[in-house]
Specification:
Elements (H helix, E strand, L loop, with lengths): L1 H18 L3 H14 L4 H14 L6 H12 L1 H4 L10 H12 L5
Helix pairs in contact: 1-2, 1-3, 2-4, 4-6
């Protein structure tokens, strides 16, 4: 349990770095953690929640291309979404799909 709290604290520090304009580096690191599947999903979910609480449009294309795949992962954000689509995850996804050309 102590190790999980330490990891959560580190993620909170990463969110702080994101707020200090280290956006791409932080989101790239989290995206790598998701791909490797070496980080507890609850920690990624915590990161996503914290980031969504602090961001607002306009978003850079680079940020969207890094962050959107994380949010589209239902294992991570499934329980954060509501049926009516009025949750922060759905709002971000809709905004991105409406305002950005998405390429694989």
């Amino acid at each position: 349990m102590l190790q999980m709290e330490l990891k959560k604290t580190i993620l909170d520090r990463m969110v702080h770095l994101l707020s200090r304009n280290f956006v791409v580096a932080v989101v790239q690191y989290i995206a790598t953690c998701v791909k490797k599947q070496d980080t507890d999903i609850s920690l990624i979910r915590h990161f996503v929640t914290e980031v969504l609480d602090m961001i607002a449009p306009p978003y850079t294309s680079e940020f969207v291309h890094l962050f959107l795949p994380i949010l589209e992962n239902s294992d991570i954000t499934g329980i954060l979404r509501s049926e009516d689509g009025k949750d922060p995850v759905s709002t971000f996804i809709v905004h991105c799909k409406t305002n950005f050309i998405m390429m694989s």
